[in-house]
Amino acid sequence: MIEIKNLTKTFEVANGTLDALKDVNITIHDGEIFGIIGMSGAGKSTLVRCINMLERPTEGSVIIDGCDIGRLSAKELRNKRRNITMIFQGFNLLMQRTCLKNICFPLELAGVPKAEAKEKALELLETVGLPDKAYAYPAQLSGGQQQRIAIARALATNPQVLLCDEATSALDPKTTHSILELIKEINRKTGITVIIITHQMSVVEDICTNVAILDNGRVVESGAVSEVFSKPKSDAAKRLVFPEGAEEVFAESGNEPRIRVVFNGAKAANIPLISQMAIDKGIVANILGASTKAIGDRAYGNILLGIPGGKEQVATAIEYLGAIEDITVEEV
Amino acid sequence: MLDKIFSADALAESIEILQTEFPVALWETFYVTILATAFAIVLGLPLGVLLVAGEKGGVLPLPKGLMNALNVIINLLRSVPFLILMILVFPLTRAIIGTTVGTPASIVPLVIASFPFVARLVESSLREVNPNIIEAAQSMGASPLQIICKVMIPESVPSLISNATIAITTILSYSAMSGIIGGGGLGKIAINYGYYRYKYLVMVFAVILLIVLVQLFQSIGTKLATKSDKRLKTKRNTK
């Protein structure tokens, strides 16, 4: 378990100080894939670097399995870091070493005998699906392949925690997906805890079970991904869920009665729900705004409907839609 | 005047000198340059590493006073003209070699003049290493020494070779100057015949040989630097 407690990080800048993180509290359980999402400058990278003490927090602590890693000596911290490895947006492979030697690198640092390190590295090349690239240099690989090598390198010391700092931000959507699938598979097989830092909603939706939304150095919302993304409460969360400002569109619509239909992971991704209501109940709803996302076969998000007719129609619509599992309806 | 320089007599005499004295001079210039460069690297490489690793925010921060002192010493040594430095280090040369004249004695001032220069070249090479790669190594639990020996230096090898080439060609031109204080080599021939005895043609030959040497060192260095750089390998080499 990783407990981030009252973490504050203040940087000295030219004209005063900059609070990158303010009183951040997050608990991450073993084996979880935890997303930390936020806009540029929200403090995500600083936060992830505080977890392995690449950045020293100004205040607060990071406790991993009961061990306050801020209090470790330099040597102890170096040993601990073999247990909390990291992948990066820019891959950061050693450009003058072959892929095999790159994967061996953390083992070399740990003093593992060469033959043993090589065996482990070859095994990991299989895991990440690049067994034929052992003697290629990073410059000969595509971005996605480089990130796979970086993942193999991060796994070489059998860590308990994998930190991903914008690991897919430099990749195209298809490659992003395949890298996320790989991380998911590794998480499932080894039970490694994964912390994903990203500014992309799709990444969190694709892979994370829990999420914390970071805005201006503070955690403004956290919880299960389905919960946070279907009913965003904070402004920052709303900005992420409705990047085009869908909420404002809702507010300016006409004066007919309106209901909000919230999809909470309903198995409704493939059902023409609104049309079905028109057929079954004769209510011709007007879609004023919608922001839904299908995650797997489940739908998340919400739709704002204008209901023509009187109170009776509204009540019928609420009853009809509310009867479906994992959908909540409210009049707005 | 030109016809006097290129007269048949002058040419015959020059060719004779070329055959009798140049082989030794060429060898002297060659070994002085190589040895001086080697010693300059032995001193300059660690110093250059300290300049980068020891600064604030480096992998092995050193006291600010020490860093300032290093920088001042390097700048001081670099600002003394070589001609004067050669004379200034006479006591040191005598202590090490036993004499201040002759070819081996010229190695001492060459090393003193060039190691601060080498340190600056090493510094600039090491600064080219992507700081994110250093951060990645830190995230894997690398110690400062491991980062220096396994990341910073190996990652900057192509640049270090390029800069070593610059160093060797600079030291070669310095070594020609040491003819003035009795150091041997092509420089001595150029000065003795060309300057003191007005045999311009001999001097021209010496200069041509120096140019050939510089070209040789430069092309070997460039080739080695390119060959060592794995970032430039674009052809797929999977097995």
Q: What this model shows, in words?
A:
The complex is a heterodimer of chains A (332) and B (239). In chain A, strand 1 and strand 2 form a beta hairpin. Chain A is built from twelve helices and 14 strands. In chain A, the strands form three sheets. In chain A, strands 6-7-8-3-9-10 form a six-stranded mixed β-sheet, with helices on both faces. In chain A, strands 2-1-4-5 form a four-stranded antiparallel β-sheet, with helices on one face. Helix content of chain A is 36%, strand content 30%. In chain A, helix 3 runs parallel beside helix 5 (143-155), helix 4 (114-127) crosses helix 5 and helix 5 packs parallel to helix 6 (173-190). Chain A has two domains: 2-232, Rossmann fold, CATH 3.40.50; 242-331, Alpha-Beta Plaits. Chain A is elongated. With 332 residues, chain A is an alpha/beta fold. Chain B is an all-alpha fold. Chain B has one domain (2-228): MetI-like fold, CATH 1.10.3720.10. Chain B has helices at 2-5, 8-20, 22-53, 64-79, 82-88, 90-97, 103-127, 131-139, 144-155, 157-177, 186-196, 200-228. The longest helix of chain B is centred in the N-terminal third of the chain and has 32 residues, at 22-53. Classes of the chains: A alpha/beta (332), B mainly alpha (239). At the A-B interface, helix 2, strand 6 and helix 3 of A face helix 8 and helix 9 of B.
List keywords for this structure.
heterodimer; A: 332 residues; alpha/beta; Rossmann fold; 2 domains; elongated; B: 239 residues; mainly alpha; 12 helices
Question: Brief overview, please?
Answer:
The complex is a heterodimer of chains A (332) and B (239). By secondary structure, chain A is of the alpha/beta class. In chain A, 36% of the residues lie in helices and 30% in strands.
